[in-house]
């Protein structure tokens, strides 16, 4: 109850006080005193004040809107608005690089260069999120399903090269970019026909069909030529089986096919140097600088006169694509892969791994520099398709309680990869007459010391290498892994989440935090604003009934044969199945899909 005071008078006084506040505000806006002693009624002045306030406020809103518009324009940087105008997209893939690869390489670099604990790799400063990597067929993806998640923004089965679980092709970001008028490029250190690059410009049911992938990548498939620039290895899949360096099963000359489709061709360090760092590239260009994979960086750096580095190829590609699009309304899409971080993981070779990651970090820095200097708007996103090796910067060597240590020192004394040492060993073993056992033991002792910096090899280490040369590669890698106390849980991939990095966290807000790998693919197409669905439609229309040569003179779908029984395990069922396969299998080392 309001007691004695009438309700009405209460209300009136509150109205008056509100009016006074308004009057004071009006005074601030108009410069008029709030005195009410003049002959005009209070109401009049209040109306005038409100009117002026409204005019000023409207003007302010208009000005703010114009200013905001300008800032929201992606050309001016920042904002969540869809980008418009000319732009470049560089997508970097660190194949098989998990978070621990960075710990390993960072500590190695600090040790080798006497740097402070706080010293980071270039890439460390650009992390924005993580990607979850499972495929449709397994919690552990391979690079084919991994790259299909990027290229098509769709999940598929392990082994799928931009085809879906129903074996229909899916259009890729590169194909759509080409259709939209962008220039396109692929730079890798493995075979250009390997899963990651293949997923951007080919469609096959099984990743092993690299001969078919080579043909498609030079334009022999429903869309014609879509790649303007390819730099990497894998020459042997382009040469007819009548030539010595060929690894093709048939007599097709895919280099000739590429030339017919307009490609210029470079196949040596001399050819690469003639490209003048990209200033002298005439597109389209097919550059294949190794028969298969380009050697690991730890070996390649001593053979710089034979093979270009990842960084050199990346820089040449950016220079060439920038130059080629200088008068175009569209920029370019370029995929750069540090392909062999994955191989070092498969080989469980920490020496090869740290140098692969450093090579990637160097290319990463060059991309940042390019984007900063190039007048065209652009962004780089970098991520991995999966982790490889189940790498741990820790290893318990004995059953007793472990020490908390791992040592980068042994890695910094090593000068070669286990792959290269194995090649040297095989060459030695194949000499005539066959070397004696003691000569072989001497050779191994020297190899361990000169190649891995291991001067304390045990008798059993040497004896095992002498008697089981077929597993030499794993033995070399294990010798250096044990000494550095580097752990590995598999010679294959793992299901670890992998990091996402970018040149510009503002433009890549959509990728901050933890994401499904397909969302990386979503970002790529949205940034370029290209229509991937219409490419899918075109592929299906043109591809229906289209046949190609298969094994034994039989014809198969243009996407090649389907995986055999049990090669895919789609769905959820198998994920829950434990098969009792924990028992020790005896010494089987086999080739594996990466
Ligand atoms: C080369 O390929 C042709 C088919 O193009 C095949 O008939 C022939 O057997 C192959 N030769 C070798 C040595 O593989
Ligand atoms: C590395 O090599 C140097 C010189 O041979 C040697 O003194 C050092 O002990 C080696 N370090 C490791 C960790 O093997
Ligand atoms: Zn792999």
Automatic annotation (TrEMBL):
<feature type="active site" description="Phosphoserine intermediate">
    <location>
        <position position="143"/>
    </location>
</feature>
<dbReference type="Pfam" id="PF00245">
    <property type="entry name" value="Alk_phosphatase"/>
</dbReference>
<feature type="binding site">
    <location>
        <position position="386"/>
    </location>
    <ligand>
        <name>Zn(2+)</name>
    </ligand>
</feature>
<feature type="binding site">
    <location>
        <position position="196"/>
    </location>
    <ligand>
        <name>Mg(2+)</name>
    </ligand>
</feature>
<keyword id="KW-1133">Transmembrane helix</keyword>
<keyword id="KW-0597">Phosphoprotein</keyword>
<dbReference type="InterPro" id="IPR001952">
    <property type="entry name" value="Alkaline_phosphatase"/>
</dbReference>
<feature type="binding site">
    <location>
        <position position="95"/>
    </location>
    <ligand>
        <name>Zn(2+)</name>
    </ligand>
</feature>
<feature type="binding site">
    <location>
        <position position="385"/>
    </location>
    <ligand>
        <name>Zn(2+)</name>
    </ligand>
</feature>
<keyword id="KW-0479">Metal-binding</keyword>
<dbReference type="GO" id="GO:0046872">
    <property type="term" value="F:metal ion binding"/>
</dbReference>
<dbReference type="GO" id="GO:0000329">
    <property type="term" value="C:fungal-type vacuole membrane"/>
</dbReference>
<feature type="binding site">
    <location>
        <position position="342"/>
    </location>
    <ligand>
        <name>Zn(2+)</name>
    </ligand>
</feature>
<feature type="region of interest" description="Disordered">
    <location>
        <begin position="1"/>
        <end position="37"/>
    </location>
</feature>
<comment type="similarity">
    <text>Belongs to the alkaline phosphatase family.</text>
</comment>
<feature type="transmembrane region" description="Helical">
    <location>
        <begin position="48"/>
        <end position="68"/>
    </location>
</feature>
<dbReference type="InterPro" id="IPR018299">
    <property type="entry name" value="Alkaline_phosphatase_AS"/>
</dbReference>
<keyword id="KW-0862">Zinc</keyword>
<protein>
    <recommendedName>
        <fullName>Alkaline phosphatase</fullName>
        <ecNumber>3.1.3.1</ecNumber>
    </recommendedName>
</protein>
<feature type="binding site">
    <location>
        <position position="194"/>
    </location>
    <ligand>
        <name>Mg(2+)</name>
    </ligand>
</feature>
<dbReference type="GO" id="GO:0004035">
    <property type="term" value="F:alkaline phosphatase activity"/>
</dbReference>
<feature type="binding site">
    <location>
        <position position="337"/>
    </location>
    <ligand>
        <name>Mg(2+)</name>
    </ligand>
</feature>
<feature type="binding site">
    <location>
        <position position="95"/>
    </location>
    <ligand>
        <name>Mg(2+)</name>
    </ligand>
</feature>
<keyword id="KW-0378">Hydrolase</keyword>
<dbReference type="InterPro" id="IPR017850">
    <property type="entry name" value="Alkaline_phosphatase_core_sf"/>
</dbReference>
<keyword id="KW-0472">Membrane</keyword>
<keyword id="KW-0460">Magnesium</keyword>
<keyword id="KW-0812">Transmembrane</keyword>
<feature type="binding site">
    <location>
        <position position="493"/>
    </location>
    <ligand>
        <name>Zn(2+)</name>
    </ligand>
</feature>
<feature type="binding site">
    <location>
        <position position="346"/>
    </location>
    <ligand>
        <name>Zn(2+)</name>
    </ligand>
</feature>
């Amino acid at each position: 109850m309001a007691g004695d005071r009438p309700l009405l008078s209460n209300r009136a006084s509150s109205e008056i006080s509100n009016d006074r506040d308004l009057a004071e505000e009006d005074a601030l806006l108009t410069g008029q005193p709030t005195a009410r002693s003049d002959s005009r009624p209070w109401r009049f002045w209040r109306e005038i004040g409100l009117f002026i306030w409204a005019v000023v406020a409207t003007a302010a809103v208009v000005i703010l809107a114009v200013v905001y518009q300008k800032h929201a324009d992606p050309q001016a940087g920042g904002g969540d608005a869809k980008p418009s105008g000319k732009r470049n997209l560089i997508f970097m893939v660190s194949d098989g690089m998990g978070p621990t690869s960075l710990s390993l390489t960072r500590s190695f670099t600090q040790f080798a260069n006497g740097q402070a604990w706080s010293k980071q790799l270039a890439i460390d400063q650009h992390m924005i999120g993580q990607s979850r990597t499972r495929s449709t067929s397994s919690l552990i993806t391979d690079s084919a399903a991994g790259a299909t998640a990027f290229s098509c923004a769709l999940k598929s089965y392990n082994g799928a090269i931009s085809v879906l679980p129903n074996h229909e092709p899916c259009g890729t970001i590169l194909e759509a970019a080409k259709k939209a008028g962008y220039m396109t490029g692929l730079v890798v250190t493995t075979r250009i026909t390997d899963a990651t690059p293949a997923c951007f410009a080919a469609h096959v049911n099984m990743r092993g069909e690299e001969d078919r992938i080579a043909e498609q990548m030079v334009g022999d498939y429903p869309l014609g030529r879509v790649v303007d620039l390819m730099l990497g290895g894998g020459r042997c899949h382009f040469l007819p089986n009548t030539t010595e360096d060929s690894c093709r099963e048939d007599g097709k000359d895919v280099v000739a096919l590429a030339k017919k489709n307009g490609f210029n061709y470079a196949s040596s360090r001399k050819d690469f140097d003639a490209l003048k760092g990209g200033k002298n590239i005439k597109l389209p260009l097919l550059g294949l600088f190794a028969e298969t994979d380009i050697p690991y960086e730890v070996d390649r750096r001593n053979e710089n006169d034979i093979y270009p580095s990842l960084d050199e190829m990346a820089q040449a590609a950016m220079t060439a694509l920038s130059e080629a699009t200088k008068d175009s309304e569209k920029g370019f899409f370029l995929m750069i892969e540090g392909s062999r971080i994955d191989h070092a993981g498969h080989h469980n070779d920490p020496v090869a791994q740290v140098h692969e990651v450093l090579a990637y970090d160097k290319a990463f820095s060059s991309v940042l520099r390019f984007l900063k200097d190039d007048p065209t708007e652009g962004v780089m996103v970098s991520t991995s398709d999966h982790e490889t090796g189940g790498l741990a910067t820790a290893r318990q060597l004995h059953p007793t309680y472990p020490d908390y240590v791992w040592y980068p020192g042994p890695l910094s004394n090593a000068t070669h990869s286990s792959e290269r040492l194995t090649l040297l060993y095989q060459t030695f073993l194949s000499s005539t007459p066959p070397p004696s056992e003691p000569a072989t033991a001497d050779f191994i002792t020297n190899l361990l010391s000169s190649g891995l910096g291991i001067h304390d090899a045990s008798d059993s280490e040497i004896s095992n290498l002498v008697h089981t040369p077929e597993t030499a590669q794993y033995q070399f890698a294990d010798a250096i892994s044990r000494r550095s106390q580097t752990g590995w849980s598999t010679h294959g991939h793992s299901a670890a989440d992998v990091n996402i990095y970018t040149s510009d966290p503002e433009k890549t807000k959509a990728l901050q935090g933890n994401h499904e790998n397909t969302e990386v693919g979503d970002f790529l197409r949205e940034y370029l604003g290209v229509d991937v669905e219409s490419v899918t439609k075109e592929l299906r229309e043109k591809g229906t009934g289209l046949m190609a040569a298969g094994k034994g003179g039989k014809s198969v779908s243009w996407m090649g044969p389907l995986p055999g029984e049990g090669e895919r395990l789609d769905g959820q069922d198998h994920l829950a199945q434990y098969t009792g396969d924990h028992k020790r299998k005896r010494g089987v080392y086999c080739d594996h899909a990466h």
